[in-house]
């Protein structure tokens, strides 16, 4: 159903979102020891300030899904995101892969995370489980902890349903992740798959095709950038160009993730339940 998104009746909704901060994911992956000194990660000292400056220049309020570990180690960076008018969502405690974690481990991650959010006076509305997958864990767990929407890997949109809970779903396909264009080993996620990185121009072409498909389907999509990978000026400039392109596209309602979630929640008859992805990408 086209023409149902946002106040202007756009064909589709698009949110530009960011993942990762600090050493959290590197600690989870084992590339940084848990007891290594922290506090000067390049994603906080270089990439994040450049991104915040760029987003302000292009007048776009984005959503940052942040590992809550950063609230203890980089509180100033998290405050800077929020004070600049961006949404701060949850991306695990230490980027633990939900689809490979026990229910007890996830409960502990949520407890630590929400305590850290509360200490900074921030209440996360959106959840993007690390790797974008729920695994065997119910959507009810997120609803019980007060989340208002979930961002998951997949292409279906609408709401995702647990045994008792129903949350708006903001989906993203794996080729809407910047690593598919920038990072060796992730490039097989592109459509069509590739063996080598293609750089910002290739990313913009890929994201344009995703937006075309989303508009034709009358859907919504999240486009994902990882803060640590915006380590070159041309990559930051490409995000600014993308913001301008989407803002000028009459087919697109360019909004923040929580704004899209509110739109879906307020119109349950228009947005039926959708399936979510249940497997990780083959990288």
From TrEMBL:
Boundaries of each NodB homology domain copy?
45-150
**Gene3D superfamilies for the chain:** Glycoside hydrolase/deacetylase (3.20.20.370)
Cross-referenced InterPro entries, in alphabetical order? Glyco_hydro/deAcase_b/a-brl, NODB_dom, Polysacc_deacetylase_ArnD
Tell me the protein's name: Polysaccharide deacetylase family protein
Species source reads Amycolatopsis silviterrae
Q: Species lineage, top-down?
A: Bacteria, Bacillati, Actinomycetota, Actinomycetes, Pseudonocardiales
